[in-house]
Amino acid sequence: MSTIKQVQITFDCASPERVARFWCEVLGYVPPPPPAGFAGWDDFNDAQAPEDRDTWFACSDPSGVGPRLYFQRVPEGKVVKNRVHLDVRVGTGLVGEERLAVLEAECARLVALGAVRVRLLRADGVNESCITMQDVEGNEFCLD
Fold it and tell me: How confident is the model at residue 2 (pLDDT cuts 50, 70, 90)?
C-alpha cells in the first residue's frame, strides 16, 4: 500500500485566475511563474485560442507546507452548498473576545478582497466561534 505524499485541492469555477488570486491573498500563497517563453500570465493567455484562455490557474504555499490549490473552469455555475469547504484557521488557540477580535479583523480584510460574510457562529460551550463566509464566486469557507 502506498503512502500519500501530497494533496491538491481543486476548485471548479467560472474564472480560475480571479478565484486563485483571491485565495493567494487569503492564504499568503503564490501563483506559479508563467510557462516558459512568456513574460507573464496575460501574455500566455493572449497566445491561447479564445476558448482555451483562463481555463486553469494554480497557486501554492511558498513554504511548501500547505497543499497546492488548482482552479479549473467548468461550464456550469455553482448551484448548491459546497459538500467540502476550507477552514481558514486564524484563531487557533484563542478563545472568547480575543478570538472574536481576530476573526472579525480577518473577516474585514477578506471582505475588502471580495469575500462575503455569511454569519457569525458564536461559541456554544463545545465549539469556539467561527465566521462562515463565501469567496469571490460564492464558495463557502469558514474563518476558524
Answer: low
Residue carrying the nine cell digits 462562515: 132
SS3 120: strand
Q: How far, in Å, CA of 66 to CA of 55, rounded?
A: 23
The answer to whether the beta carbons of residues 69 and 60 sit under 8 Å apart is: yes
Q: Do 99 and 129 meet the contact criterion of CB atoms below 8 Å apart?
A: yes
- Cell numbers of 36, please? 516558459
pTM for this model (two decimals)? 0.87
What SS3 class is residue 67?
A: coil
100 dihedral zone (left: phi>0; alpha: psi -120 to 50; beta): alpha
- Dihedral class, residue 108 (left if φ above 0, else alpha if ψ from -120 to 50, else beta): alpha
